[in-house]
Amino acid sequence: MLTATQPLRAVLPPRHGPSSFPSSGKASAGLWAPRRGAVSSSKVRCTSVSVSQAVVNGQAAIGTVVADVDQERQAGLLLTRRGEVELPVVTLKATVTLRLNEEWSTTEKVAGMVHQPWLLLEFFSSELDPKTGKEMRTQPHAASYSRMDGAGSFVYEVTVPSSSFGDVGAVVVENHYSSEVFISGIEVQHPNGAVNFNCSSWVTCHAGYNKRIFFPLESYLPSQTPEGVARLREMDLEAKRGDGHGERMLWQRIYDYAVYNDLGDPDKSASLRRPVLGGKEHPYPRRCRTGRPRCKADPSSETRAAGEIYVPRDEEFTARKAGAFLTKKVTSTLSAFTTAQEVAGDRRRSFPSLAAIDALYEDGYRNQPGQQPDNLNTYFTDLLEKQVELLLKGEKEEVKEDIRKVFKFQTPEIHQNKLAWFRDEEFARETLAGMNPLSIQLVTELPIKSKLDEQTYGPGDSLITKELIEKQINGVMTADEAVAKKKLFMLDYYDMFLPYVHAVRELEGTTLYASRTVFFLEEEGTLRPVAIELTRPKSPNMPQWRQVFTPGSSVADSWLWQLAKAQVLAHDTGYHQLVSHWLRTHCCVEPYVIAANRQLSQMHPIYRLLHPHFRFTMEINAQARASLINADGVIESSFSPGKYSMLLSSGVYDTFWEFDKEALPADLLRRGMAFQRDDGELELTIKDYPYANDGLLIWDAIKDWVSEYVNHYYAAASDITGDKELQLFWTEVRTRGHADKRDEPWWPVLDSRESLVQVLSTIIWVASGHHAAVNFPQYPYAGYFPNHPTTARRNMPTETGDMRAFLEDPEKVLLDTFPSQYQSTLALPVLNLLSSHSAGEEYLGVHSEPAWMADAEMRAAFERFNGRMMDIAETIDRRNKDPALKNRKGPGVVPYVQLKPNYGDFKDMTSVMEMGIPTSISI
Q1: Dist. CA 38–CA 18, nearest whole Å
Q2: In the chain, what is the straight-line distance between the N-terminal and C-terminal CA atoms, in Å?
Q3: Is the pTM of this model over 0.70?
Q4: Each residue of 143-168: b (16+ CB within 10 Å) or e?
Q5: CB atoms within 10 A of CB 296
Q6: Distance between CA 629 and CA 643 in Å, rounded?
Q7: Which of 35, 150, 406, 628 is most buried (CB neighbours < 10 A)?
Q8: What pLDDT does 382 receive?
Q9: What CA–CA distance (Å, rounded) separates 495 from 386?
Q10: Enzyme catalytic residues
Q11: Which residues contact 368 (CB under 8 A, 6 or more apart)?
């Protein structure tokens, strides 16, 4: 069995975490580039307040803050008194590990931080005073700099004398320095033992927001909350909910909801006006509220001010992740530099030949795991040092070669076999094991029919008839027998695309059809394409046009077939990006993140289970709204269906998305790709379906881990129905996060351990396995765009009647159908960026939370989960070596490793697709 070389550890490197301390002060009014870790000084100022300036009840405080003695007696904590000292019964010693934001880490800043008392800690007992029934707490004490640790963090210590105190139930940290600090962890030494706090959170310096509450690692359901910190638990949640007013500032930690009304920019240009997504007209999940002012040209839209889009501070990228993201973005963009320069004046220019497309890539230059630097300066410094060394050795040709590589794209995996994209077998195989294995579905009845209104769009019955199918499968069985034996499958992009065809065709440099593609399941377990139907709906000026294309025997028919495949693949790429990827993972998960932070305390066990699966999702989504899915962004400029992309995703959300069907088994059943046997077990319709084969192993492992976790904290169903935070979380997901579907009958009810396990497993699967399966294959499969063009630009010659140009030069017609050179310079860098794993990525089954490791039973359960994931990795390796599994193994076949768990050793990996399954949607 494989062994995880990354240790299961109870103490993690700095991560982002939850919570804000409430304040009476009100909030101030008011993708694809890494965010700054600190707020620009042009926007905000932090007031530096030393501890000697802090005043409590009129007295200056240094070290122990002096309070009213009678008040302290009533609280049960007599610390000091004028002229009289009572000996403490208990001494609390706290060690705080922290670091500055890298942008603020100047010598002057560090020196000032080390030599000033600025960090105040206040300790709360987990118990109430038995005499007064009130909270027991110390006064705020100043921590002093102690040392630097091995990781470069600062260690501060404070010793607090107190009377009989009980266990420490919470620590309040107050920052009086002139910049924000990242609190990694706090350890409190107590006579009853050490109490650990995994803070992993930024504490701002802004007045009114510079206090934070942190709770120990032990998890509690609301009803089990230690009495001494019950009030703090609710206060912490209230601080993160905000009041729904004002513009959010970058240092805040307020989680709230808004519709997608910030994708357009009508104040800049009327052509950039976009409809609001979210509401009855265009149903959509909700995003994080930023509170930016409304546009003057369109009050329903939010302004797109220059700079960063607000997300709660702890949701932002770490400095390391931001650096790796920027480095990958810049290096990917450099690859497109030469082409961009050549076509700057002509966005419609096609590639002159297939050889010209091949010339974009550098043979042998691949994005292998572990080769990507974390820092842009380091990347260029290392490159320069290498060039200087080569020049000194006289290796001028090698210098030229290395520099040339900078301006070349890495070779996608699919292009290792340069003719793979042309083969029908590969076209069919990728529906099961490629970039988008979530669209293929079983044909359950013939004739195939549309559900759209025929009066509006024309006849909806398919021209892929029984007779045509029987002819294409050489009469081995009747079409009805093929349906009965579950032999026919389909990519159906008909009903969802047809309403947009005429509108998209009015856009410059693009076209659109509705399409149906039918496949036949061969005896050896592979699919064979049978026919493609392309349709243009009727309009007031012209009748409906539609035609069926089949793999032809003549040269002309073969080229028409390739053109029809290009149209379908453009549909598949657009649907993949907008629905399988963006909508079903990024977009639909953001409401879960918001609701969890608003309703689940940081000490709630379910929050601690879900939190690692939510890291950085809001940040990457904000960057997507900034430059990827926005008006005239990369998606609209280079993917089908252009300007109407987000409207299409809204339509699919409205008619297709159901939470209970997002679980992998339910999704397979919905598409007819699996069925339940008489014994209740799931069986795949296509035995060699790599996405489903591997995905079900991951799904089962997740569900077993979640089951152990839930059963540990919930002894009975009544504990679930009586958990007010959990119920409020789930209510808010349904009624606010997915408000347009709040009344749907399919929402699960959290009334048992089984229903809770199913809900949590679904969320975790979507954020991890589902996202990994559709994200990391993007560049390996669509990076060579003849294999998966992002858009189609030219109508079929049989529709336009321009057969002469087609017959004279069919290759040119195909090249004119593919994305233009300009569109490729936009799409390829983004696909390369999205397909990358960042430094410090956390992987499913490998990454462990400190709270899990602090509980002996949960630690053992996670170790079983880890072991099972390692077994799955071995199973996937064996499957990829089995010649009987032809969808995974064969000449030119790219192995299916998208769902292979990470076992911590990248040296033998050759593809980013096999680096593992990240715990969250972080790219």
Answers
A1: 18
A2: 30
A3: yes
A4: bbbeeeeeeebbebebebbbbebbbb
A5: 10
A6: 10
A7: 628
A8: 63
A9: 55
A10: 581, 586, 771, 775, 923
A11: 909, 910, 911, 912
